[in-house]
Amino acid sequence: MHAAAVSATDVLLRTGGHAVRMPDRQPPFVPGMDAAGIIDQLGPEVDGRLWVGQRVIAMVLFVGPHGGAYAEQVVVPAASVVPAPKDADFPAASTVLMNALTARLALDELSLSPGDTVAVTGAAGAVGGYAVELARSDGLSVIADAAERDVDLVRGFGADRVVERGPEVAAGIRALVPEGVRGVVDGSLQTAELLPALTDGGTLVELRGWSGPAERGIRVRPLMVTAGMEDTAKLDALRRQVDDGTLTLRVAEVLPAEEAATAHRLVEAGGLRGRVVLDFS
């Protein structure tokens, strides 16, 4: 392990939010879902796609028997490992998979067609930013939210139109699309506040398990990134989209591994424009 990105999911584990998924686990609990490093050993059934000494990135299941990515060595299924982006250092490389995969799964759930309009909230954040970039790459028209200081950032990701972040974001979307949009990716975790932005029969993708209720035929789809952790093709496609410039890696701060507590405080404080990374090199 050379680098592990710190996320809100890690904070949720530390504060007990994932206890329901780990009823039989005993301490220590090791956070971390995003890893970057060098392959040290391969299992006997791993094919020639991976090799010892290769620079790679991986998704790590912290609820698994080996724990998460905050470690000097991790053991993961080969299916969760892909080559590192070619021009990224380890801290930057560690920031892509979990958030970009979440955004990819969210857009896939919406099943929109090129030319359709999608709304993305929390667009200045890690998942939201990737959702904007991937939506543009998919040929979608993107409405995104942003605070005043983040408007240029969000436009830089590829948002066609920007509405003011906050409790009135749904009204702002409706002002731009009076009939409502067909799909919303809720990166701001506003849940029911966003339902008025949707047209009848539209779809709202939720990242923290909220499943409704909703009226007017609106579908609410809770999303778990673990569903795609061993989808090697999807993971490698995201890595290639870093290489071709579709996806932008953003590092807010790199800290020594022993300063994990400080990293968690930074994430909890919010307002970051990029990921905090722990250096295990």
TrEMBL record:
Gene3D superfamilies: Medium-chain alcohol dehydrogenases, catalytic domain, NAD(P)-binding Rossmann-like Domain. Residues 7-278 form the Enoyl reductase (ER) domain. GO terms for molecular function: oxidoreductase activity. InterPro entries: ADH-like_N, ER, GroES-like_sf, NAD(P)-bd_dom_sf, Zn-ADH-like_protein. Pfam families: ADH_N, ADH_zinc_N_2. It comes from the Bacteria. Signal peptide: none annotated. This is Zn-dependent oxidoreductase, NADPH:quinone reductase. It comes from Actinoalloteichus hymeniacidonis.
